[in-house]
Amino acid sequence: MSESEGHYQEFCDDDRPEGWANMQQALFDAHEATLQKELGMARAEANRAEALEWAQRAAFTIAVRNGTVCIDDVYILMDAFGGHPERLGNAAGSVFDKRRFEFTGRWVKSKRVSNHGRWIRVWRLK
What are residue 102's DSSP bridge partners? Predict the structure, then answer.
């Protein structure tokens, strides 16, 4: 071990707060992360059921017509026909139900200003 590695190790060993190991376990737990994701999605779906149903119908319609669909497409259609996409909120993560849709492997940059150009998935019907 080099001198700098030794100092780093010494710093880490001496300055870890009490309960550090438990904190690390709470921060990094794949099973718990998946469980919390599923619970969060279920809550969002329940709280935004009407908007989610609207969005899922829009996604299906777009995919049938165009072959593929992304969440920007859904927002555009919802907005054009009074579907109030802003009401979708966190339930947007549940629009593309894995039983009906599959990820194409393609990503596109979102054109929605609020998404700041982030990459979004492109989906197709199974």
Answer: 124
Structure tokens, 70: 């992304």
Structure tokens at 15: 């300055």
pLDDT digits (tens, 9 = 90+) for 63-86: 999 999 999 999 999 999 988 888
Start-end of H helices in 16-105: 20-27, 30-47, 49-66, 71-80
Task: Report residue 46 CA to chain centroid gap.
Answer: 17
Strand-pairing partners, residue 109, are: 119
67: Cβ contacts below 8 Å, ≥ 6 apart = 124
Between CA 117 and CA 62 the distance in angstroms is: 22
Beta carbons of 108 and 71 less than 8 angstroms apart: no
Q: Which residues contact 77 (CB under 8 A, 6 or more apart)?
A: 58, 61, 62, 83
| Confidence (pTM) | 0.69
- What is the C-alpha separation between 42 and 40, in angstroms, rounded? 5
